[in-house]
Task: inverse folding
């Protein structure tokens, strides 16, 4: 897309050893439209291609890390319409298809294959999370090697109780949360606070909100002290062990079940949206005329 807004910002620190990528849609709580995801992939690839970069920090401007997929804002709706406003990668990836096939191809490209590639990035990655991380936000942070959080961070996936879906497209819930907690959070729409996420090992560090940026950098600098090849050998070894236990196959199966949920939703549209979003996020969504609250956070 020509003249795309800068929804993702990229900078390097510590003589280039640390790259920091910022989600830059604070007024929309960093909701992820297609342009943001394309720019995010470009930023990750830029860091991966830079031999000086050892650690990549994924951060977000504003009060909340991310409100999930953006399916209702004007910018997001425009991206879905045929014509020059649509990003080239969107046009070539299923835009000419119809129905379930079209949705399948687009979600595979934007929400599954991208995330899986970021998980295996040839750099060490650290997610810096503050405020709410809702639904698709989990895909971004779960793709990272480490998650550090502010003491006010909260994690949730509300698509099951709001849309009758099994969870977001990158279905790492049983691995990140454990089977029983994954079922509980998905079936109730409850959120997990930073302390709870730390206790189960999902979050590596908790910092006071006012100190989050500085202390995340300090943590990244510690990791960057390790020689690059050693860090990548550790990352590859741990990821390979997870894959041998069935992680990647479970992800693939979860994605296909998610698409079945879409098909059911499109036919029956039975859900009554029993779970409310956090007030600050819900206020943003309800401010847009004609928007159906809940379909925004698939």
Result:
């Amino acid at each position: 897309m020509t003249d795309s807004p800068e929804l993702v910002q990229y900078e390097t620190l510590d003589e280039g050893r640390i790259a920091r990528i910022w989600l830059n849609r604070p007024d929309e709580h960093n909701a992820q439209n297609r342009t943001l995801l394309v720019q995010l992939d470009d930023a990750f690839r830029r860091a991966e291609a830079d031999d000086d970069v050892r650690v990549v920090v994924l951060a977000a401007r504003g009060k909340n890390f991310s409100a999930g997929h953006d399916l209702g804002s004007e910018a997001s709706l425009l991206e879905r319409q045929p014509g020059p406003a649509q990003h080239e990668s969107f046009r070539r990836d299923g835009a000419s298809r119809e129905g379930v096939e079209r949705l399948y191809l687009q979600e595979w490209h934007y929400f599954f294959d991208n995330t899986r590639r970021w998980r295996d990035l040839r750099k060490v990655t650290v997610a810096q999370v503050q405020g709410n991380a809702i639904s698709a936000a989990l895909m971004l942070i779960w793709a990272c090697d480490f998650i550090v959080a502010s003491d006010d961070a909260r994690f949730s996936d509300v698509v099951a109780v709001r849309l009758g879906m099994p969870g977001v497209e990158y279905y790492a819930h049983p691995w990140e949360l454990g089977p029983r907690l994954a079922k509980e959070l998905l079936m109730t729409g409850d959120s997990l606070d930073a302390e709870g996420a730390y206790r189960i090992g999902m979050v590596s560090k908790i910092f006071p909100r006012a100190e989050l940026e500085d202390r995340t950098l300090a943590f990244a600098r510690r990791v960057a002290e390790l020689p690059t090849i050693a860090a990548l050998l550790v990352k590859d070894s741990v990821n390979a062990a997870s894959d041998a236990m069935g992680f990647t196959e479970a992800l693939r199966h979860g994605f296909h079940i998610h698409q079945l949920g879409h098909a059911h939703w499109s036919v029956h549209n039975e859900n009554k949206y029993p779970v409310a979003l956090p007030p600050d996020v819900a206020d943003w969504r309800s401010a847009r005329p004609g928007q159906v609250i809940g379909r925004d956070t698939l």
The mean pLDDT is 82.
